[in-house]
Specification:
By secondary structure, the chain is an alpha/beta fold. It has one domain: NAD(P)-binding Rossmann-like Domain (Rossmann fold, 3-Layer(aba) Sandwich). Helix content is 42%, strand content 16%. Strands 3-2-1-4-5-6-10 form a seven-stranded parallel β-sheet, with helices on both faces. A three-stranded mixed β-sheet has the order 7-9-11. The chain has a two-stranded parallel sheet with strand order 8-12.
């Protein structure tokens, strides 16, 4: 049975990845989920999985070398999928040090622990071991707003926020381990994800939740910043395919072919909510474009991101299967069916419950 160590598996993308892997492989794999359960880590994201015999949760900090080394010592880890990261740009602007600590130092600890566990006496590595570092398109900086250029794996790094700079630093560490030690790793850089379990400080769940409650819908600047949107299940599939079919030491860009301006995203969400809400649902009257409120632009706000996923398509055969119109309906339907999850997250009750549980 292959054993996966997933960091940040209680977060948005990590939990979706774990759900995907168990749907695909069932009892053929074992997953050890390591998460510190900070504000964005929520074990409610993994309900239905926690009782599986082939699933283990460990509350630990990826910066704690002793704790991470113990996990490697006590388990024969075959794959590491490293999601754990501070990821919200606005938070990085307010408190950059936390991002450097988790994203750079935490990645260094993960690399060192994996290297120590997998390295043989001759400097080579045990057969079949792989480390996948999950990163972001934000490390590439900003593209012109003319739709004519894209991010490729060869695009020079040009981060503009403390968040993207910390992820760029983590990427460089992984690259250095591949070059210096021939460490068996890959890097993936993805575009903006959306889908179930996304923490509601991010654009799409924030707009869905606020619109349903008749609250203001904040839009940075002129609302014309462009992002490429990737449905999270498509991302999970891509990560699995890179682990199993990707060439070692390579970087793969994972994009959704769904470029949209932020203001366009908001209008699509409002229109879709109107279509999906029953006529007798009182929330339908609350959903209106009058809620859109333009606010001061984010500092260092990149104008456009757009990934060209040509390499992963050509080498591995992955492509984004979910177009935005379908993906946003799936996402909204999930939020309709999981209103208690949203209530617990926005109230902070989930964090109190699990903090008390793991402090006992």
């Amino acid at each position: 049975m292959r054993t996966y160590l997933v960091t940040g598996g209680a977060g948005f993308i990590g939990s979706n990845y774990i759900h995907y892997m168990f749907r695909k492989y069932g009892d053929e794999i074992r997953i050890i989920n390591v998460d510190l359960l900070t504000y964005a880590g929520n074990l409610e994201n993994l309900k239905g999985i926690q009782d599986r015999a082939n699933y283990t949760f460990v509350k630990a900090d990826i910066c704690d070398k002793e704790a991470i080394s113990r996990i490697f010592a006590e388990n024969d880890i075959d794959r590491v999928v490293h999601f754990a990261a501070e990821s919200h740009v606005d938070r990085s602007i307010r408190n950059p040090e936390v991002f450097v600590q988790t994203n750079v130092l935490g990645t260094a600890v993960m690399l060192n622990c994996a290297k120590e566990a997998w390295e043989l006496s001759d400097g080579s590595f045990k057969e079949g071991k792989k480390f996948l570092h999950v990163s972001t398109d934000e490390v590439y900086g900003s593209l012109p707003d003319n739709g004519a250029s894209f991010f490729y794996e060869t695009t020079p790094y040009d981060p503009h926020s403390p968040y993207s700079a910390s992820k760029a630093g983590a990427d460089m560490l992984v690259k250095s381990y591949m070059d210096t030690y021939h460490f068996p790793a890959n890097i993936t850089n993805c575009s903006n994800n959306y889908g179930p379990y996304q923490f509601p400080e991010k654009l799409i769940p924030l707009i869905i939740n606020n619109a349903l409650h008749g609250r203001k819908l904040p839009v940075y600047g002129d609302g014309r910043n462009v992002r490429d949107w990737l449905f999270v299940e498509d991302h999970a599939k891509a990560i699995d395919m890179v682990q199993e079919q990707g060439r070692l030491f390579e970087t793969y860009n994972i994009g959704g072919h769904n470029e949209k301006r932020n203001i366009e995203i908001i209008h699509i969400i409002l229109e879709t909510l109107k279509e999906m809400l029953p006529d007798d649902d009182p929330r339908k009257a609350l959903v209106t474009a009058d809620l859109i409120t333009y606010v001061e632009d984010r500092k260092g706000h990149d104008r456009r991101y757009a990934i060209a996923p040509d390499k992963i398509k050509a080498e591995i055969g992955w492509y984004p299967e979910t177009m935005f119109k379908e993906g946003i309906r799936k996402t909204i339907q999930w939020f309709f069916e999981n209103e208690a999850w949203m209530t617990n997250v926005t109230s902070g009750d989930y964090q109190k419950y699990y903090t008390e549980m793991y402090e006992k």
